[in-house]
């Protein structure tokens, strides 16, 4: 039986792989103009990093991590032994924890330094139940800015994210930007208590998991997918009524920058996001139609305590990530197609085996000159070579054959106008390298 790709994964076939490359290049362009530079971190990290960074009580860490034990350690475990914590590795479910770990490890933000502005693009792994827009391996593009707590960082990030979506073709009118503030370590504990008390008072109307969450991490109840819980939580206390003065001012300033840039947003005081590291600003971008329940194409926020959680000195941070596959679904919903792959410039055809070496040599020469050149590798007839050239979108076909060779020429056919002309063999490369009239 044929083996298919694992459930929840997707192959990016050439047309899409080319689009993914362009998508990343657009991100580098848009984010690069705000000073963000590429960083690459490993796709797996010590499990402990995610437990401490993202939070043990989050779904991402408690239910969705792909945790691996490498060969020798697996044998040790199976035979009843124990392995060191640093040998417990997990595929990254998101990029922030790894980037913050790298910033701390390499001291990228020494005291008094300018903020580190970093961007990344690559696969993330979450063992979720696959459905449309939800995969087990998916691609994210993200940014992290470490070392500045000014609200201008948050606004700059949100504005450039919205610019990016538009640059890849997602219509602004199809997106909704939700913003909220999660408060800080001064104001959030009291708010958390208030939510816990609220859940306890409505325990009978809420699911078992939310009742458990009340003790462990009550704010997670805002994320519960159970409709009854969601209805109850609509009446829960709002964080925006509990913000301290500093957090309120920070939030107001972020919003004023967005207003000044004419970036429309909706305030959503129930937006808490699924990761525990957030403080102050949180936001999410949703697509309003055609995406079903997995309609968040990106999101992020501020995480001023995360660097300390993973062993670094206090370093405020802000970032976001966007889901590539969901952006593709949003583009499909908006009727935007992948751009066509670039076609072949010249197809080098041959009438018989004698001429095959000439076609091969010309293809090599043209490629060296920077053209996209193709030729037959399957012993096709000349007619079938023309069919293939057509399929590949070749602009011109060069035919080598005994008659042509006897006259010291090859026939060059313009596939758009169907014009044919003989070109001396020693002038071929030069003629073909010129752009078509
Ligand atoms: P997140 O909201 O968990 O945030 O993920 C960001 C985006 O990744 C989502 O909005 C969605 O588009 C996409 N995504 C998430 N899970 C899946 C999945 N299973 N299948 C397909 N797409 C998915 C983070 O990951 C944070 N690290 C963002 C951040 C950066 N916050 C601060 N800095």
TrEMBL record:
L-histidine binds at residues 94-96, 126, 140, 144, 273, 277-278. Keywords: Aminoacyl-tRNA synthetase, ATP-binding, Cytoplasm, Ligase, Nucleotide-binding, Protein biosynthesis. It catalyses: tRNA(His) + L-histidine + ATP = L-histidyl-tRNA(His) + AMP + diphosphate + H(+). GO terms for cellular component: cytoplasm. It comes from the Bacteria. Gene3D superfamilies: Anticodon-binding domain, Bira Bifunctional Protein, Domain 2. Pfam families: HGTP_anticodon, tRNA-synt_His. It is found in: Cytoplasm. Residues 1-339 form the Aminoacyl-transfer RNA synthetases class-II family profile domain. Signal peptide: none annotated. It is an enzyme of class 6 (ligase). One of its GO terms (biological process) is histidyl-tRNA aminoacylation. GO terms for molecular function: ATP binding; histidine-tRNA ligase activity. Its EC number is 6.1.1.21. Coiled coil: none annotated. Homodimer. Belongs to the class-II aminoacyl-tRNA synthetase family. HAMAP family: His_tRNA_synth. PANTHER family: HISTIDINE--TRNA LIGASE, MITOCHONDRIAL-RELATED (PTHR43707:SF1), HISTIDYL-TRNA SYNTHETASE (PTHR43707). This is Histidine--tRNA ligase. The gene is hisS.
């Amino acid at each position: 039986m044929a083996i298919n790709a694992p459930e929840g994964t997707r192959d990016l076939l050439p047309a899409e792989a080319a689009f993914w490359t362009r998508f990343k290049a657009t991100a580098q362009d848009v984010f690069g103009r705000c000073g963000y530079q590429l960083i690459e971190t490993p796709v797996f990290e010590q499990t402990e990093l995610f437990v401490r960074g993202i939070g043990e009580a989050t779904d991402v860490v408690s239910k969705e991590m792909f945790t691996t034990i490498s060969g020798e350690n697996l044998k040790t475990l199976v035979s009843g032994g124990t392995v060191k914590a640093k040998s417990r590795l997990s595929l990254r479910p998101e990029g922030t924890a790894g980037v913050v770990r790298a910033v701390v490890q390499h001291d990228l933000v020494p005291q008094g330094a300018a903020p580190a502005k970093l961007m990344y693009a690559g696969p993330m792994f979450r063992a979720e139940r696959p459905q449309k827009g939800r995969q087990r391996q998916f691609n994210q593009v993200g940014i992290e800015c470490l070392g500045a707590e000014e609200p201008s960082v948050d606004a700059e990030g949100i504005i450039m994210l919205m610019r990016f979506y538009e640059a890849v073709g997602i219509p602004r009118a199809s997106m909704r930007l939700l913003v909220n503030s999660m408060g800080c370590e001064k104001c959030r504990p009291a708010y958390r208590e208030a939510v816990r008390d609220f859940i306890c008072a409505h325990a009978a109307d809420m699911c078992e998991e939310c009742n458990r969450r009340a003790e462990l991490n009550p704010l997670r109840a805002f994320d519960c997918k159970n409709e009854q819980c969601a209805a109850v939580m609509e009446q829960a206390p709002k964080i925006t009524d509990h913000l301290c003065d500093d957090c309120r001012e920070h939030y107001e300033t972020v919003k004023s920058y967005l207003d000044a840039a004419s970036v429309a947003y909706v305030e959503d005081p129930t937006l808490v996001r699924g990761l525990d590291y957030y403080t102050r600003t949180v936001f999410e971008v949703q697509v309003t139609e055609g995406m079903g329940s997995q309609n968040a194409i990106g999101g992020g926020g501020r995480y001023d305590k995360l660097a300390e959680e993973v062993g670094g000195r206090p370093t405020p941070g802000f970032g976001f990530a966007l889901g590539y596959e969901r952006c593709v679904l949003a583009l499909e919903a908006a009727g935007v197609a992948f751009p066509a792959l670039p076609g072949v410039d010249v197809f080098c055809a041959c009438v018989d085996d004698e001429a095959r070496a000439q076609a091969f040599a010309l293809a090599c020469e043209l490629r060296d000159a920077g053209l996209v050149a193709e030729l037959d590798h399957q012993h096709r007839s000349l007619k079938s070579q023309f069919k293939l050239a057509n399929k590949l979108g070749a602009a011109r076909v060069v035919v080598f054959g005994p008659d042509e060779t006897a006259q010291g020429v090859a026939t060059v056919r313009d596939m758009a106008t169907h014009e044919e002309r003989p070109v001396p063999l020693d002038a071929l490369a030069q003629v073909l390298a010129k752009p078509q009239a």
